[in-house]
């Protein structure tokens, strides 16, 4: 089994505040891993370390075989990233946004044209390419953002709350595409607050107060705690763990180091 992400005791401190504490998990290539947890739990901070854009305070992680601390550029070249803000230019058309991101990924000439054509077909954007992004619905903007993130054929697709505020039909279409990409071998790391999305992941990590308090397949996790639904499971975790945020104290920040 080839690992896409191997994360061992990852820690991130901002001053005396520990945003991520001793996070350890592994996922194989081609898997969909979902991060769930309340706001401020540390999901984005963990994702940013794994993308090679934030240096961990301690711990080790390899992504696609590259070390996050010493080889961040190798990681960045091989991942596609999409955040809930979509990072599109509203006053440009879909085609112009794709052209801009092709440039960001250093795609030129024939290669750029080929990759743009590929993602337009793949995501079903054919009839939208000349439309201004500002005139698109949230669901279509989301699909354009996904197309931009796929332009350079990444091996790992990182999605930080990609469907926040998007209607249910668009969410379903988006997830159908995500599952197809995973079937073709792409690894997906996604943070979400939606339990139906969490349920369709191969692996789930539940993050709370900076710690990964549970990890496994959705079925395993439910069985382990004897819960019928993921909603019940996550409410159980939150109630079990909830107390004053331990990360605000020096003791909390040093606990896993
Ligand atoms: N650069 C920073 N400096 C100081 N604190 C930070 C910084 N980045 C994040 N934090 C803090 O670390 C904690 C974890 O934040 P993070 O954004 O990783 O959480 P999250 O689980 O992604 O939340 P959300 O679901 O709201 O996106 C938060 O309390 C946040 O305020």
UniProtKB/TrEMBL annotation:
Annotated ranges, domain ABC transporter: 5-234
Keyword set, alphabetical order: ATP-binding, Nucleotide-binding
Bilayer-spanning residue ranges: none
GO molecular function: ATP binding; ATP hydrolysis activity
CDD domains noted in UniProt: ABC_DR_subfamily_A
SMART domains, per the entry: AAA (SM00382)
Xref: InterPro entries: AAA+_ATPase, ABC_transporter-like_ATP-bd, ABC_transporter-like_CS, P-loop_NTPase
PROSITE patterns: ABC_TRANSPORTER_1, ABC_TRANSPORTER_2
Pfam families for the chain: ABC_tran
Protein name as it appears in the record: Putative ABC transporter ATP-binding protein YbhF
Organism listed in the record: Desulfosporosinus acididurans
Organism lineage: Bacteria, Bacillati, Bacillota, Clostridia, Eubacteriales
């Amino acid at each position: 089994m080839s690992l896409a992400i191997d994360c061992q005791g990852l820690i991130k401190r901002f001053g005396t505040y520990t945003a991520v504490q001793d996070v350890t998990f592994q996922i194989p290539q081609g898997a969909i891993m979902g991060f769930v947890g309340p706001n401020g739990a540390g999901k984005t901070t963990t994702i940013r370390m794994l993308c090679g854009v934030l240096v961990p305070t301690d711990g080790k992680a390899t992504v696609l075989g590259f070390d996050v601390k010493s080889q961040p550029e190798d990681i960045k070249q091989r991942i596609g990233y999409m955040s809930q803000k979509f990072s599109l230019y509203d006053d440009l058309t879909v085609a112009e946004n794709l052209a801009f991101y092709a440039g960001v990924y250093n795609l030129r000439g024939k290669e750029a044209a080929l990759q743009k054509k590929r993602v337009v077909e793949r995501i079903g954007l054919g009839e939208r390419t000349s439309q201004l992004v500002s005139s698109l619905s949230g669901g279509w903007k989301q699909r354009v953002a996904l197309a931009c993130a796929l332009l350079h054929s990444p091996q790992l697709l990182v999605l930080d709350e990609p469907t926040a505020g998007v209607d249910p039909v668009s969410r379903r279409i988006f997830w159908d595409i995500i599952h197809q990409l995973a079937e073709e071998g792409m690894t997906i790391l996604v943070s979400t607050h939606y339990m139906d999305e969490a349920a369709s992941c191969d692996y789930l990590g539940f993050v709370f107060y900076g710690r990964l308090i549970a990890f496994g397949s959705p079925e395993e996790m439910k069985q382990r705690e004897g819960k019928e639904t993921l909603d019940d499971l996550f409410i159980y975790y939150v109630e079990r763990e909830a107390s004053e945020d331990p990360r605000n104290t020096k003791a909390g920040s040093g606990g896993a180091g």
